[in-house]
Each structure stands twice: as C-alpha cells, then as structure tokens.
Design a protein that fits this description.
mainly alpha
Length: 319
C-alpha cells in the first residue's frame, strides 16, 4: 500500500484480504453485499422524483417555522452584550433555540429522505425542548435550573425534578392560564393539552414495538406504488404530514406566549433592542402573528380534513 492511498482505499484492501482468508476473493471493483452509497444515491433520486402534494404543502409550512427559529437563534447569538458574561437566561435560550433549529432540520432531512418513522424519536425530544422553552419564557428563573443540567447525572436530576410525571405540563398550563386569564381557564387547558394527544404515538415509535418496526418498512401514504422498494431504504410518504402537524402544536405556544421575546418583556434577563430596519428583527416580531394565524387556520374544522391525505390502507390486512 503506497503512501498516497486514502484511508478508505486501505480499508477496502484490508476487507478483501480478510475475505480472502475465508476463501472468498474478488477484485477491487467488486464487493460482497449491497453498496450502501449507491443505494442511498438511488433512494435520494427516487424520493426527489416522487411528488406528494400534501407532503410538499406541509413541508413548506415546516420551512416557514424553521426559518423563524433560525432568525430567533441568529439574533440571540449575534447580538450578545459586549464584555458581559451571559446570564443563565441567555445561556438557556441560546442552547434551546440551537437545539430546536438542529432537531427541526434533522426532522426535515429524514422526512424528505423517506425516514419519517426514524424522525419520530427526534420529534419527541424536540417537543420536550419546546415545552421547556415555554416554561422558561413564562418563568425566566426556571432557566437557572435548566443550565445546571450540564452532565448526564444532573440532566437526569433535572428531568426527574422538573419534567417527569406531568411536571412540565403543569408549567405549560400555567403559562396558558396567565395568557388567557382566569375567565378562560377551559380555553387555557385545551391549548395546554393540544399536543399531548400525540404522546402515545411518539412513544410507540420511539420505544421498541411491532407497529413501529412495520411502519419503518411500510409508511402510511396516500398512494402505495407496487414497484417501490420497502420504506426500509427510505420512502418519502404522506405520513410525514402528521409528524409536521405534531411539531406545529408544540411550536404554537412558543410563538404566541413569548411576549415579544427577545425585544420586550424580559428586562433584566436579556437585552435586544428592536430595529425596524433589521430584517431578522421584523421576521421575529411580525412573524409570530403570521405563523400563529397560519397554524390556527389549517386546524379549523372546515379545512382540517381538506389539507390532510387519506391514507391508502389497501395493502394492510383488515385484521
């Protein structure tokens, strides 16, 4: 092996030598088993050519929300106070918005590549972070507890003391109650529990289960082509519409309840002065209203069913 050989070439040579020891020999241009790189390339091309009107519509909606969180993350990051150490609230909001952007982009990638089922555990984690974000924006002192979760042990303690057993749900409910007022307690409870109905679905795909494994191979779609490879290899499907819809129910309170964060309502915790000439500032402040109205409109009874696919269940046994 010469010095100019890459590590990948050295590895392939080592594999050929290892196979030869077992009596299996092949040239440098062949291999045993599936060429994963070629399979992925084929999967990407297949999904790019597959047109799904419902999926594409909801993907556009998802992009609008990711874009908003990117603007928020950018403003928080790029406008830090000079020569001043970030306080716990700033550290917490920076870390959480970073996580939200990262996970939502990962969710988008997996959906477009045809791995919706694999995106569900990420979505579950993302929804939990969004709830913690709501709680911190409602009670900034909660950030002090969040930033303590810097190690696996302290993260476990934070989860047990503040998230487990519906504890975070109570914090989210209080945020809605303060926003809606005592006279609208039923409305507050309804919105606080809006995304909660999806918990069994996310748990069913995050933890080992027969149905979770099956949906990895046969994702729910509005049309199942007979010649498609199993979803195991990546099959873009309308099932991702539900994935995106769940994300929106948890993003909604961040958009609506944040009291003009980070420009006003958080004096002593974060200092960002609104600039009408700054595109990102305008995107954050006015985008809230645009996106919350969008979420509410697509969830109205007269539009809800119209904007969602009717899944093709013909390939599933009636049992």
């Amino acid at each position: 092996m010469n010095e100019t050989s890459s590590l990948e070439e050295m590895f392939q040579q080592l594999m050929r030598e290892s196979w030869a020891e077992h009596g299996v020999e092949f040239s440098s241009k062949t291999r045993l088993g599936v060429n994963v790189s070629e399979g992925i390339e084929h999967s990407i091309k297949r999904n790019a050519a597959k047109k799904l009107q419902y999926f594409d519509f909801w993907l556009a909606i998802l992009d609008e929300h990711i874009s908003w969180f990117v603007s928020l993350f950018t403003v928080i990051t790029s406008e830090k106070r000079e020569n001043k150490k970030a306080n716990d609230f700033e550290r917490a909001t920076l870390a959480i918005t970073s996580k939200i952007v990262s996970d939502s982009l990962a969710l988008r990638h997996l959906s477009t590549l045809g791995f919706d089922n694999a995106s569900r555990p990420i979505l579950r984690s993302l929804c939990e972070y969004l709830e913690v974000f709501v709680a911190i924006l409602h009670q900034p002192s909660f950030a002090d507890e969040f930033v303590k979760s810097e190690t696996p042990e302290s993260a476990k303690t934070f989860w047990a003391e503040h998230l487990r057993g519906g504890k975070i749900r109570k914090k989210v409910t209080r945020a809605w109650e303060d926003f809606c007022g005592e006279q609208n307690s039923e409305t507050a409870t309804t919105f606080a529990n809006w995304g909660r109905s999806s918990t069994p679905i996310l748990s069913g795909t995050a933890h080992p289960s027969f149905v979770g494994a099956v949906f990895s191979a046969i994702p729910l779609d509005s049309h199942n082509g007979k010649d498609d490879l199993p979803g195991t290899f990546g099959l873009k499907a309308d099932a991702s519409v539900d994935t995106i819809s769940i994300f929106l129910t948890f993003a909604f309170p961040v958009l609506l309840l944040s009291h003009d964060f980070p420009f006003s309502g958080f004096k002593g915790h974060i200092e960002r002065s609104f600039d009408e000439n700054d595109e990102l500032h305008k995107h954050i402040r006015y985008g809230r209203g645009v996106l919350t109205n969008l979420i509410m409109s697509i969830n109205q009874p007269d539009t809800y069913d119209y904007l969602r696919p009717c899944f093709d269940l013909s390939i599933w046994p009636e049992k």
